[in-house]
Description:
By secondary structure, the protein is an alpha+beta fold. The chain contains 8 helices and 17 strands.
Amino acid sequence: xxxxxxxxxxxxPKNPDEFQKACKACVERGIAPIRILGGGANILVADGVxxxxxxxxxxLQRVFRPGAGGESEEEASAEMPGEFDMELPSAAMVQDDxxxxxxxxxxxxxxxxxxxxxxxxxxxxGLEGIVGVPGSLGGGVxxxxxxxxxxxxDVVESVRVLGAGGEFKDLARADCTPTYRxxxxxxxxxxxxxxxxxxxxxxxxxxxxxxxxxxxNKVQPVTAWSAGCIFKNPPAEVSDGRSAxxxxxxxxxxxxxxxxxxxxxxxxxxxxxxxxACAADVFELMEAIRKHVLDATGVELxxxxxxxxxxxxxxxxxxx
Length: 320
Ligand code: EPU
């Protein structure tokens, strides 16, 4: 969205151990709140200086195959020299038959586009539906990113999180309860995940991705500055099956604006920044939309985007 102010403190750990150390150091020094920043695709940051610390996962970029040849995940990870930041899988990733164990380990900061490219090149199907989502693995798992063609958690086998006490925990899929746009991890921060795919021909994966992307590009303002969908789709029984975008359009809120923040004409559930919007403009517009929809349809829209602002009673950790 390109609005919002600055972080008082920013930390950029380079690996999961540094991530853990960063969190512990902040807790020990009483620096709060701690906010975890993934790709930032679904966050609205208030104007001004954001108190506390932001820990960005941007450098936690690795994606690799677990146990290729029988090693543990740690060994497989250690084998990758330096920062693994390649466009396509390295020779080390494809030296045996990738279909034998169609899984990937990705660290929190791995971008979803990079993860999808890697999966496609290995012939791993399951995440095609989130093509075009610009965030990171950590944010995608925390929010259960997705849409009409599937959700992030469709492929999650287990998640490694940092608990409130600063300890790593591995959560199996069976012990988690992700729901619509919510990974259900509470205040536990995603460090990485093991993802399980289904082997498929690369061409088939590519075709599905292209088809979804074409459809999405037709209905969403993909090149404009936005934070994706602003509101969650309400439960069908509350909205008669209408999506947030439909409710916004029907309530006549399309085209409303506040400063340079404007409701997209292409998709009512997107607010776009025409250039000089500030966060206050976006927040005001969100409230105007919510009121329009409530008055016209009786449905109260709930935020899908996460808002980062200084709260008077701040001191608790938040994550996204
Ligand atoms: N529609 C309208 N007017 C609008 C916008 C949409 O009538 O202004 C109608 C469409 O014609 C369609 C229905 O509403 O019949 C649903 O629209 P769409 O297919 O665009 O899907 P959505 O429910 O609005 C969800 C996700 C998107 C994801 C798409 C496609 C939510 C809140 N949104 O959108 O995710 O990209 O499906 O998979 O769940 C995001 O999470 O940020 C996001 C953009």
